[in-house]
Design goal:
By secondary structure, this protein is an alpha+beta fold. It has a single domain, classed as Lipocalin. Helix content is about 35%, strand content about 35%.
Length: about 200
């Protein structure tokens, strides 16, 4: 009698343990199925996003190339590198190279604290451009070079725009000293830019 009673008590426990294991396994499987579904949806969205971004980059590249050709553009910089190698992330609204017709403005304002000579934390110089040239390399990179001469500037400027987007970098070589400066950012048509120009020298 004792043995029979013990077996009858164990049997329900074993059944309950089996049911619990099955329930946990089903829950794990459900989570895995949901994870696979979410990943598939994510990959589909990512592919769509990449396709959309490629289209946006392509349009921006076409606009930037036309703006360079028309000498009607702004390179809005988000970082500036100085001769000593120091790189500063900057506000693209106040750090830029703009060209409108035969007039160019180079503004470097790395400080958000000091007002600087231009009133926005740096220096603004403008001048007349000459000797401008546009070249396209075999890899699709476009180089726009020009000389800028004015009261506060006498420099050679080279702008390099990368293929497939409007991302670009520029080098400013002052003719009267060795304080070369490099800027990186994006090229936009002049009319689409919202940069703030400070007081020029």
């Amino acid at each position: 009698m004792v043995i029979v009673a013990g077996l009858s008590a164990i049997a329900p426990d074993a059944h309950a343990q089996t049911a619990d294991r099955n329930a946990r396994a089903a829950a794990r499987q459900e989570k895995m199925d949901k994870w696979h579904k979410d990943m598939a949806e994510f990959r589909a969205r990512s592919a769509q996003d990449r396709h959309l971004q490629a289209l946006v980059d392509s349009v921006a590249s076409v606009q930037a190339r036309a703006a360079l050709q028309n000498q009607d553009f702004v390179l809005e910089a988000d970082n500036v590198t100085f001769r000593n190698g120091a790189t500063v992330f900057v506000n693209s609204n106040t750090n830029f190279i703009s060209v409108k017709g035969n007039r160019a403005v180079v503004q470097i304002s790395p400080s958000n604290m000091a007002s600087g000579p231009n009133g926005v934390g740096g220096v603004t110089v403008d001048g007349t451009i000459s000797g401008q040239q546009i070249k396209q390399g075999k890899n699709g990179q476009i180089t726009f070079s020009m000389n800028v001469m004015g009261i506060g500037i006498n420099a050679q400027v080279e702008i390099y725009m990368f293929p497939g987007s409007n991302e670009a970098s520029a080098t400013v070589y002052p003719n009267f000293n060795s304080n070369t400066v490099w800027l990186s950012g994006k090229i936009v048509p002049y009319e689409n830019s919202d940069v703030f120009e400070g007081m020029s020298l």
